[in-house]
Amino acid sequence: MKKNKIQAIRGMKDYLPIDIAFYQRIEQILKQVISSYGFSEIRIPVVEKTSLFERAIGSITDVVEKEMYTFQDRNGDSITLRPEGTAGCARAGIEHGILYHQEQRLWYMGPMFRYERPQKGRYRQFYQIGVEAFGLSGPEIDAELILMTARCWKALGISNHIRLELNSIGSLETRKQYHKILVSLLKNNIHILDKDCKDRIYSNPLRILDSKNPAIQELLINLPPLREYLDSESNHHFLGLCNQLDIAGIPYHINQRLVRGLDYYNRTVFEWTTNSLGAQGTICSGGRYDNLVTELGGHSTPAIGFAIGLERLALLVQHCNLKLQPNRIVDVYLITKGPEKQHLGMLLSEQLRNLLPELKLMNNFCVGKLKKHFARAIKLGARFAIVINTDEIGDEELILKDFLHQTQKKILKTEVYSILASLLDLKLQSPIEDQLH
Ligand code: HAM
């Protein structure tokens, strides 16, 4: 009897080679921009102690209360698949003593896990590329991170489809004071609150500002914005940031209702959003978290960061920048006619790899008509096919077929290295260097 097929877990996608070629192109651009600001990669575990996220993100947040994948390991310890990277990054920084009295500019990339209701742009395993800057308290670094993201959007060709929402949520004290005002307004209007908001009224009332419920939005119109209660230092910081963005020519929209769903933030919070993707329009979000390192047992260290949701970013790029080509899987498809001559193809391809280390070359190892091989090369996205050892060409020659310009010519085998290097813009290793290494 045929067995049942086992399928992937709901909300957890497979990324096939064709998807990866596109993701890698996007990631390459992001990493290049991030590195150009002097940030270095850090790799942190995918699982951490549950208490890390409870303490960092806050135990009364949606992420911790409802969305974490938490298990007991074989020792009976409670561990959690990371729902985000900031907590782990701060934990690692404290553990390795790299935050104390020094600046650190770090980035990471990898899967995050949240038990949310899956839909377009919202998954239970999704990928983030995140950036965290530790040890800098002034608004300059806030501005620089925003400039960095703006540069990423420009490089990806999506700047016109994404906008920056900005706010300051001030200090812990500011928020306590504001909580009181908000709670009293909400209690006086308890009859219009939905269940979600009633649940949050004492635990996390600020999140009610985010509510999409029109009746609640209407009620909140009369509420003075949190910004009016900011302490003077937070206010000064926010004005400093806005000023830097104005000077740099980065447009932003001050969204008084932007509070973010993770508890560790203070002062600056921001989101880059789009209207082009439906409900899941937040592509990138972040903010300042000056108290997190202390909260996790480290020395007081100011910090700010952001994370980009890579699936949402890829959807947006696909939606609005058709020019961005996926990374090519194969540059050259090498066809050797006749099974008894395959060793010649192998020798030539190894020599091509010696002299053009960046070249992506695939050998054909099967017999068949040239037309069939060309069709396969095109399917792989190859720019060129090389054909050796046909009846029509001599041993010292080969055929170079250019799929982009739809041309085909005979060339000498000795010329192929420099021709490919120039047409594909690759570095040609000199044979002497090759011998030395
Ligand atoms: P976050 O807003 O929870 O922040 O997530 C960052 C980004 O991850 C979101 O803007 C969104 O693009 C993406 N994202 C979140 N949940 C999902 C999901 N279920 N499916 C697909 N994409 C998703 C953080 O994670 C903070 N650690 C950001 C940060 C870094 N703040 C300071 N430093």
Number of strands: 16
Mean pLDDT: 92
Strand order of the largest sheet: 1-5-6-11-10-9-7-8
What small molecules accompany the polymer chains? histidyl-adenosine monophosphate
Going by CATH, the homologous superfamily of the largest domain would be Bira Bifunctional Protein, Domain 2
The overall number of domains is: 2
Number of helices: 15
The CATH architecture classification of the largest domain is 2-Layer Sandwich
Query: Shape from CA axes?
Result: elongated
Summarize the structure in words.
One of its GO terms (biological process) is histidyl-tRNA aminoacylation. This is Histidine--tRNA ligase. GO terms for molecular function: ATP binding; histidine-tRNA ligase activity. The protein is an alpha+beta fold. The protein folds into two domains: 244 residues, Bira Bifunctional Protein, Domain 2 (BirA Bifunctional Protein, domain 2), CATH 3.30.930; 105 residues, Rossmann fold (3-Layer(aba) Sandwich). Helix content is 38%, strand content 20%. It contains 15 helices and 16 strands. A hairpin with a 4-residue loop joins strand 15 and strand 16. Histidyl-adenosine monophosphate binds next to strand 6, strand 10, strand 11 and helix 11.
